[in-house]
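General statements about sequence and structure are easier to judge against a single worked case. Part of our work consisted of pairing the sequence of a single chain with a tokenised description of its backbone. The amino acid sequence and the backbone structure tokens for this protein are reproduced below.

***
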Amino acid sequence: MRFYLDFEKPIQELELKIEELKKLSDDSDIDLSQEIKKINKKLKDLRVEIFSNLTPWQKTQLARHPERPYTLDYVSMIFDEFIELHGDRRFGDDPAIVAGIGKIEKRSFAIVGHQKGRTVKERVYRNFGQAHPEGYRKALRIMKLAEKFSIPIITMIDTPGAYPGIGAEQRGQAEAIATNLMEMSLIKSPIVAVVIGEGGSGGALALSVCDKILMLEYSVYSVISPEGCAAILWKKNSEVSVEEYAKAAEELKLTAQHLKDFNIIDEIIPEPLGGAHRDPQDMAKRIKASILNAFDELQNKSIEDLLKERYQKFRKIGNFWDKKNNISKKN
């Protein structure tokens, strides 16, 4: 049974109506094809109307949709061959991050990405996509392996954030993320990152230092979740309301459209009407085409130019306002 978000309830009603009419038509001699056609037209128009006017909070909900494809789903649809590699060679293997070497149209790539898990059992096993330090160290190990053999690197980001548990802190969570930021800025292989769902905090940034950042149309990418932001700003004695979550999402400017306007990301990959989960195969084709186009643009650059431009890409992010001297500065 398909899962519907709150703002999709009108769509759910029409889809259920169509299913009822199809069943009635199959079980009887009544021809309901014209009625079904009319409702399908109404359904399509309704989808366009709803998904053309989504708020940042609604896009956040869509980015977290439980039916949305995850990294391993895209790997199976995009890669012709894939060998998963495990372990950080220090502590263990973290299932919240998957990594390996594969081929797309006879071209070799290293792939690293967050994996949330589909069922309750899988989600617990994958820790809901929240990586431990060994996950980030595994990711870096695979990226360094790719650098050794001059293999381009793809990262797929989909996490609410790095795991904040005691064990993760004891094993050096902050150090592992910081090391990835430093090392990825210097890796001598082209890197393309794709935000496929949630891009939360340092847990996302640890896989995002790259030459090109792509975002799916309904994905989000932010320093903190709307819930975390709202709790810090407005939580008092009572629970934070959904309205405050929505307000935080608006203020965070976390959507692909906002980030493209700020020149933080390089490309928005359009999603099928209704979201990536409505047509995963089509979404995978779009991601594949964008990834290959991005690497085609990068392949003729020298390593020196690649590293210089990667450094400048992150240095120039942001506008600054010196309140004391009333000076606006853009890097």
About this structure: The longest strand covers residues 191-200.
